[in-house]
Design a protein that fits this description.
heterotrimer, A alpha/beta (256), B alpha/beta (323), C mainly alpha (633), B: Rossmann fold, 2 domains, 26% strand, C: Rossmann fold, 4 domains, 53% helix
Chain lengths: 256, 323, 633
C-alpha cells in the first residue's frame, strides 16, 4: 500500500503563547515546535499498515524551513520518504488554500490511502483531511481510531459522540482523518534518526505548485480570553453545589 | 440571497440539543443582520420533528427529504445540501458543530469555494465569528469575505438552546436527486465500546474514586453518578490495590493515562502518581473533604464537602438536567 | 637454636628419567592451560576496542591495584570473615611464588633457595606461616560453601570449587609436611612429586573454571573505567549500545571472564531480593556463556539465549552490585549498555516507557505535566528568577517543580536559604535533566535534553547550582559532561551541612532513621552531610543496611516511571526495614525516595512514622511560624 500522511508542525503543547504586535498571530521567536498530536497517530496508523501489508509511507508537510525537523522526526519513526512544501505564508491561507496546496503536492503520487490527523493543536479547524478528500474526489471518513485493510478496500472504526462507535466500509483509494488515542505511539529512536539521514526529502515551493485564490475566511485578530483559568470552588449545601456544578459543566465548560 | 439557514440534526428520532443551540445562534445572526431565519432538516420521514421546529420562531422550515438520507453518509448529505444551496443560495448556513457536521460540512463548503468557520463560540458585530485557538488559550475573530454562502458551525453549549415559541411556520419539502451508486461509504449501526474490556483511554467521561470512599460497599453511590453521566468508573491505586475495582480501572503513572472531556475525582487527594494519569483531561472536577488536597490545584471546579452527601446530590442534579 | 628447627626437605639427585617426566608433564600441563586460556584471551582481544579507556594517569590505577588486589580491601571489607579467609589464600599464593619457582628448579636440579641458608630458612618459614593461614582459610571456605551454604553462592553445589579447595589444601599440606622429613628420604621425593602433580593438575584447571580470576582479575581491576557507573559514549553512526556480540568491548569481555561467582552483587540487589528475574551475577555469567558459545564477533542478540530483556529492565541502577564487586566488574555500564541496545533500536516495547519517552520528546518534564504548572508554583511561592547576579541557581527538577511533596521540600529549603541570606534564583524554563531516559538507555532523548539544558544554563550564566534531587545532581555533574561543560552543582544536604553552625539545632530524643539514597551515597560518596543535618534535629538511628550498603527505594533507573513491578515491591521491603528500627521519623534526602516511602507507608495506615526530608528537618527548627506546608501547592 502506498500511504501518504499529511503532518503539521505546531507549537509545542506546553508552550506559552503570546499575541504578537500585529494581533494577528503569536510570537514565534522563542517557540518550540512539535509534531501535531493527532498527526502522530495518523503516522502510527500508516506505519502499522505498512508493517502488515507492505508498501511505502510518504509524509507531506507544508510550512517554512523549520518544519524540516518534524519531517525528520517522522522519517525517524519509520516513514520512507518525505515531501516538504516550502511555504512561508501558511497563516495567510485558509483551510481550503492549505488543502489545495496539499492536493497539488500529492497529486502525482497517486496514493492508495491518504491520512491526516483529525485536527491541529494550533488552529484546530479539523477540516484539511475532509477538504482534501473533496478536492481529490475520493471517499473519506473522519474521527477514525482503527483501520483494517480488506479485499474490497477498508473497514475503519469511527468515533461517535457519547461513547458510541461505528464501523464504515469504504473502497480504496480513500482519505481518512485519524483521531488521537487509537494506537500506542512508538517513540523516536536513535537508530531511526540515524537511518532518517539517508531518506529522501523532496522539496517543492508553494509557487511551483501554482497560485492560490485569496482566502475567503480571514483571521482578523487574535486575543487572550478574559477569564483566567483557576479553580472555581462551588459552595453552599451539597444540593446547591451540585446544581451549580451541573450548570457550569453544561454551559461554561460545555462538556455535558 | 435568502437569509440565515440553520441545518438541524436528528438523532434517534429527535432533534438533538446542539441543534437547538445552533438555531439560537442563527437567530442571533439574523437579528444582527436583519435577515430572516429559516431551518433545514435533512433526513427521511421527518414530519413530526419538522413540526416541532416550525414553532421556534423561524420563517420557514424545509425538510430535505430522501430515502437515502435516512441514515447519515457524507456523500448523501453533501449532495443533498449542495443541491439545496444551489437552489436557495443562503447568505449564511449555520450548523451545530457535531461529529457528523465535521465529517461533511468542510467538503460541502469546498464545493462552493467556501470554507467552514467551525466550532464558533461567539458572534460579534460585523459579523465576526469567534473561535478558540491553541486549545483554548487564545480566541480568534474570523470574518467572511466575498459574496457566496458563509458556512458556520457553532460549538456545543456556546449558545443557549432557543426557548422562544411562536405560531407554526410553513413547512416545505425539498427532494434532492441522490443515486445509491453515489454513496461510497457504508456505515454500520452504532455500537457501544466492548462491554468486556475497559477502555479508559478513549472514555469521554470518567468518574474516579479514591480512598475517601473508605469502603468497597460505598462504591455504589459513585457508580450511580457514573451511570447518570454515561461515564466510565475509574480509581486511584489504593482502591485497585485493595481489589475493590479491577486493575484496568486504575488511573495513574502505573495504570491508565486518560484524557476525557470530563474527569470527576471523588475522594482523591491528588498525589502526583495519580495526577500524571489524568492531567490531560479537558475539565477536572474535584470533590474532597480536605480543602488543601492537591487535587484542587488542578481542578477546574471543586466542591469541598462530604462526598457521601455531594455525590448523590450530583447524581440527582445530572438526572434533572437531562430532562 | 635456629639451626635446630626443622628445615624444608629438598629432594636431590633426580634422575634423568624423572627430570624428563617432569618436563613432559609440565609441558603437557602448560599446553592444556594455554589451550583454554589462549582462546579466552583472543576473544577478549578480538572484542571492540574501548573508545573511552585512558590508561593514564596511572596513579589511581596503581592505587586501586595495590589496595584492592594486594591488600584485598574490598574482599575483606564487604564480607569480613570469608573475605579474610580468602585473603589468606591469596597472600599464600603470593608468598608461594618463589617457593613454587624453586620447587620446579629443584626438580631440574637447579634449586636456588638453600633451605639451610639464612635467607632460605627465613623465606621458607614465612611461606610456612602463610601456608598454615592459607590452609586454615581454604578449610573455612570449604565449610562455608558445602556445609553452611549461603544462598548467594547458588543453589547447586559446585564440585569444581570443592576439588580446587582440595588441591590447594594438598599443596599446603605437602609443603608443610616437607619440614618434617629428611632430604634424602623417599618420603621427601614422594612429597615433591605429590606437590608437583597437584600443581600440574591445578594449572590447566585455572582457565576452565572461575579460577580464571587468578589470572584476570588483577588486570580487570587495573583496567577498570575509573569511576562509578561510568557510561561509555556511543561512537559513530552504527553504535547503539550492547546489541550483539560485536558490541562487546574488550573491557566488558574481560570483566565477563573475571567473574568469580561470589554472588556479592546478587546479595545486595534490590531486584534479586524481591523476586524479580534480574540477577546481576547471572547477567555477567550470561555474557560469559554468550562469549563461550558465539564469540565476540557474533550477530546473535545479547538479549536472547543467556540474558533476557525482562531482567535487564528490572534494574534500579542502585549500584550495589558494582560497588561490591571484588574483581572489578562494572555492572552498571553493562546493564545500561544492554538497555541502550534495546531502546536505541526500538526493540523495547513498553507502554510506560514509550509514554515517558514521548513525554520528554514533546514536553519539558518526565511527568508529562504542562510547564505552566511549574510556573504557577514559582509564582505562588514567590521564588525569584535567576538573573545572573545571585549566588546559586536553585534547580527544581521534575519532582521539585511538579510533585506536591517535592514542592514542600523545595519550599522548606528555600526557607532555610532565606534565613541564611543566601541569594538564589530559579530558571524560567527547566527541562528534565534526562536522568530516567539516560538510565533506561534512550540516548536520543537524553542528548536532546542535555544539550538543551546546557545551552539554557550557559545563556543564563549559571555558575553554581544546588538541587534537592540526587538524580539531578548526578546527571548534571557527570552525565552532562558528554555534551558540554556543566556548572558546579551540589546536593542541598551538602549545602546544609556546611551551614549548620549558622542554623539553629535542636537537642531531641526523637528517633530519626536516615535512608541513604543510592545516587547520593554510592554514586556521590555523600554520607556524613545528611547525617549531620539529621543530628541537628533529633537522634540519628541507622537502618540495618545503611551507608554504602543502603537498600534501594526502588525508584531509580527510570523505574519510578514504569509500570507495576513483579514480586514484592522494593519500596515496601525497604520501608518495612526502616519502620522496624522503631524510629518515629524517616529522614530522606531524595524526593524519589520520599515518594516511594510515602506510597508504601500509606498502605500501613495509622501509626506509620512521619517522613521528612533533611531540608524539612532543618527548616522546622527555624524561628517563626511554621508554614502551612500542605498549602504549598
Amino acid at each position: 500500500m502506498k500511504i501518504i500522511v499529511a503532518i503539521k508542525q505546531v507549537p509545542e503543547r506546553d508552550a506559552q503563547v503570546h499575541v504578537d504586535s500585529t494581533s494577528k498571530w503569536i510570537e514565534e521567536g522563542d517557540m518550540q515546535w512539535a509534531l501535531n498530536e493527532s498527526d502522530a497517530y495518523a503516522l502510527e496508523e500508516a506505519l502499522q499498515l505498512k508493517e502488515k501489508h507492505g508498501g511505502e509511507v510518504v509524509v507531506v508537510s507544508t510550512g517554512p524551513e523549520r518544519v524540516g525537523s518534524t519531517i525528520r522526526e517522522a522519517l525517524a519513526k519509520g516513514a520512507d520518504r518525505a515531501i516538504h512544501v516550502d511555504c512561508d505564508d501558511l497563516n495567510q491561507r485558509d483551510a481550503l488554500g492549505v488543502a489545495r496546496l496539499l492536493s497539488k503536492a500529492i497529486g502525482t503520487e497517486s496514493p492508495d490511502l491518504t491520512l491526516t490527523g483529525l485536527q491541529s493543536d494550533d488552529l484546530g479547524y479539523g477540516q484539511t483531511g475532509v477538504i482534501l478528500a473533496e478536492l481529490l474526489g475520493l471517499p473519506h471518513a473522519s474521527l477514525i481510531l482503527h483501520v483494517e485493510k480488506t479485499e474490497a478496500g477498508l473497514i475503519v472504526k469511527r468515533e461517535l459522540e457519547e461513547g458510541w462507535f461505528q464501523t464504515i466500509e469504504l473502497p480504496l483509494p480513500a482519505v481518512l482523518t485519524i483521531q488521537s488515542g487509537g494506537n500506542k505511539l512508538r517513540y523516536a529512536t536513535l537508530m531511526g534518526i540515524k537511518k532518517a539521514k539517508t531518506k529522501e526529502i523532496r522539496r517543492v515551493t508553494s509557487q511551483e505548485l501554482g497560485s492560490v485564490a485569496p482566502p475567503v475566511v480571514v483571521l482578523e485578530r487574535i486575543s487572550a480570553p478574559q477569564k483566567q483559568k483557576s479553580t472555581q470552588l462551588l459552595g453552599g449545601s451539597p444540593k446547591e453545589a451540585a446544581t451549580a456544578l451541573v450548570e457550569k459543566l453544561k454551559f461554561e465548560a460545555r462538556v455535558i | 440571497m435568502s437569509g440565515v439557514w440553520v441545518v438541524l440534526e436528528e438523532r434517534n428520532g429527535r432533534i438533538a440539543r446542539m441543534s437547538w443551540e445552533a438555531l439560537a445562534a442563527g437567530h442571533t445572526l439574523g437579528a444582527q443582520l436583519s435577515l430572516p431565519v429559516n431551518a433545514i432538516l435533512p433526513g427521511a420521514q421527518t414530519d413530526s420533528m419538522a413540526a416541532e421546529i416550525a414553532t421556534k420562531a423561524v420563517a420557514k422550515v424545509v425538510r430535505i427529504e430522501h430515502a437515502l438520507l435516512a441514515g447519515y453518509t457524507s456523500d448523501a448529505f453533501t449532495l443533498a445540501l449542495e443541491q439545496f444551496i444551489r437552489t436557495e443560495q443562503p447568505d449564511y448556513l449555520v450548523f451545530p458543530h457535531t461529529y457528523q457536521v465535521r465529517d461533511f460540512a468542510p467538503a460541502l463548503a469546498a464545493r462552493f469555494g467556501q470554507v467552514l468557520i467551525g466550532d464558533v463560540t461567539g458572534i460579534g458585530a460585523g459579523p465576526v465569528f469567534v473561535r478558540q485557538l491553541m486549545q483554548g488559550r487564545l480566541n480568534g475573530e474570523y470574518s467572511h469575505s466575498g459574496s457566496g454562502t458563509c458556512f458556520v458551525s457553532v460549538q456545543s453549549g456556546a449558545f443557549r438552546g432557543y426557548q422562544a415559541e411562536s405560531a407554526a411556520a410553513t413547512i416545505e419539502i425539498f427532494e434532492p436527486k441522490i443515486e445509491q451508486a453515489q454513496i461510497r461509504t457504508k456505515p454500520s449501526q452504532p455500537f457501544r465500546g466492548s462491554a468486556q474490556t475497559v477502555d479508559l483511554g478513549s472514555a469521554q467521561f470518567i468518574v474516579s474514586v479514591g480512598r475517601g470512599i473508605k469502603e468497597a460497599e460505598n462504591l455504589g453511590i459513585v457508580q450511580e453518578l457514573a451511570t447518570a453521566l454515561g461515564a466510565e468508573l475509574a480509581a486511584s491505586r489504593p482502591i485497585c490495590d485493595n481489589g475493590w475495582l479491577p486493575i484496568e480501572r486504575q488511573v495513574g503513572s502505573s495504570g491508565q493515562t486518560v484524557s476525557p472531556k470530563l474527569y470527576l475525582a471523588v475522594g482523591i487527594s491528588g498525589a502526583i502518581q495519580h495526577l500524571v494519569g489524568m492531567r490531560g483531561s479537558q475539565c477536572v472536577v474535584a470533590i474532597n473533604k480536605d480543602p488543601d488536597a492537591p487535587i484542587f490545584e488542578i481542578a477546574d471546579y471543586g466542591i469541598v464537602g462530604d462526598l457521601f452527601e455531594v455525590v448523590p446530590a450530583l447524581t440527582e442534579a445530572v438526572e434533572t438536567a437531562k430532562h | 637454636m635456629i639451626s635446630s628447627l626443622p628445615t624444608l626437605a629438598e629432594p636431590q639427585h633426580f634422575l634423568l628419567p624423572e627430570k624428563l617426566l617432569f618436563v613432559v608433564l609440565a609441558a603437557g600441563s602448560g599446553l592444556l592451560f594455554w589451550r583454554r586460556l589462549g582462546p579466552i584471551l583472543r576473544k577478549i582481544l578480538a572484542s571492540k576496542k574501548d573508545a573511552d579507556l585512558r590508561l593514564f594517569p596511572l596513579g589511581k590505577r596503581a592505587w586501586d591495584f595495590f589496595w584492592e588486589v594486594l591488600c584485598q580491601a574490598k574482599v575483606i571489607r564487604q564480607r569480613p570473615l570469608p573475605g579474610l579467609a580468602h585473603a589468606f589464600v591469596f597472600w599464600g599464593f603470593c608468598a608461594f611464588a618463589l617457593v613454587t619457582l624453586n620447587h620446579c628448579a629443584v626438580g631440574l636440579g637447579f634449586g636456588f633457595l638453600d633451605p639451610i641458608g639464612w635467607f632460605g630458612r627465613f623465606y621458607f618459614y614465612l611461606a610456612a606461616a602463610f601456608a598454615v593461614a592459607c590452609a586454615a582459610g581454604i578449610l573455612g571456605l570449604f565449610v562455608r560453601r558445602f556445609l553452611v551454604r549461603p544462598r548467594w553462592l547458588g543453589e547447586k553445589l559446585s564440585w569444581e570449587s570443592g576439588f580446587i579447595a582440595l588441591l590447594i589444601f594438598l599443596l599446603m599440606a605437602t609443603y608443610l609436611t616437607a619440614f618434617f622429613v629428611v632430604d634424602t628420604s623417599a618420603t621427601a621425593r614422594l612429597l615433591w612429586w605429590s606437590h608437583t602433580i597437584t600443581l600440574l593438575i591445578f594449572l590447566p584447571i585455572i582457565p576452565h573454571t572461575k579460577h580464571l580470576h587468578l589470572v584476570l582479575s588483577p588486570v580487570t581491576i587495573f583496567l577498570s573505567r575509573g569511576s562509578f557507573s561510568q557510561i561509555p559514549p556511543l561512537v559513530g553512526d552504527e553504535d547503539f549500545g550492547l546489541v550483539t556480540g560485536a558490541d562487546l568491548t574488550r573491557l566488558v569481555s574481560l570483566q565477563a571472564y573475571s567473574c568469580v561467582e561470589c554472588g556479592r552483587c546478587t546479595e545486595h540487589c534490590p531486584a534479586a531480593n524481591t523476586g524479580k528475574t534480574l540477577n546481576p551475577k547471572e547477567i555477567i555469567l550470561g555474557l560469559r556463556s554468550y562469549l563461550n558459545e558465539y564469540g565476540p564477533a557474533s550477530s546473535e542478540p545479547l538479549l536472547g539465549k543467556y540474558n533476557s530483556q525482562e531482567a535487564v529492565f528490572q534494574c534500579t541502577t542502585c549500584g550495589a552490585c558494582e560497588f561490591q564487586c571484588p574483581v572489578g566488574i562494572e555492572h552498571l555500564p553493562i546493564l545500561i549498555g544492554l538497555r541502550r541496545g534495546a531502546v536505541n533500536t526500538g526493540a523495547w516495547e513498553d507502554d510506560h516507557g514509550a509514554k515517558l519517552f514521548l513525554a520528554l520528546e514533546r514536553g519539558s518534564n518526565a511527568l508529562g505535566m504542562s510547564a505552566t504548572d511549574r510556573d504557577k508554583f514559582i509564582q505562588k511561592q514567590e521564588l525569584p528568577y535567576f538573573n545572573g547576579s545571585q549566588e546559586y541557581c536553585l534547580w527544581l527538577g521534575c519532582m521539585g517543580g511538579y510533585d506536591p511533596k517535592g514542592r514542600e521540600i523545595v519550599a522548606d529549603f528555600v526557607r532555610v536559604m532565606k534565613y541564611l541570606g543566601t541569594s538564589y534564583g530559579v530558571l524560567r524554563k527547566e527541562k528534565c535533566t534526562g536522568d530516567p531516559v539516560r538510565r533506561l538507555g534512550n540516548d536520543l532523548v537524553y542528548q536532546q535534553l542535555a544539550e538543551s539544558n546546557l545551552e539554557a544554563m550557559a545563556q543564563a550564566k549559571v555558575k553554581k547550582v544546588v538541587s534537592i534531587c540526587p538524580h539531578c545532581v548526578r546527571t548534571i555533574q557527570e552525565d552532562w559532561k558528554e555534551y558540554g561543560t556543566p556548572p558546579e552543582i551540589e546536593h542541598h544536604s551538602e549545602f546544609l551541612a556546611r551551614h549548620l553552625s549558622q542554623l539553629p539545632t535542636v537537642q531531641s530524643q526523637e528517633k530519626i532513621v536516615y535512608h541513604d539514597p543510592c545516587y547520593l551515597g554510592r554514586y556521590r560518596n555523600v554520607y556524613e552531610e545528611p547525617r549531620a543535618a539529621v543530628r541537628a534535629s533529633g537522634h540519628l538511628v541507622e537502618a540495618p543496611r545503611s551507608g554504602e550498603r543502603s537498600f534501594c527505594c526502588g525508584a531509580g533507573g527510570g523505574l519510578a516511571f514504569l509500570g507495576e513491578e513483579k514480586g514484592e515491591r522494593v519500596s515496601h521491603v525497604r520501608t518495612a526495614e526502616l519502620v522496624e528500627t522503631g524510629a518515629g521519623t524517616i529522614g530522606t534526602a531524595c524526593p524519589f525516595c520520599n515518594t516511594m516511602f510515602r506510597d508504601a507507608l500509606a498502605s500501613k495506615g495509622t501509626g506509620a512514622p512521619q517522613l521528612l526530608d533533611v531540608a524539612q528537618l532543618i527548616a522546622r527548627n527555624l524561628p517563626g511560624a511554621a508554614p502551612d506546608s500542605a498549602n504549598v501547592g
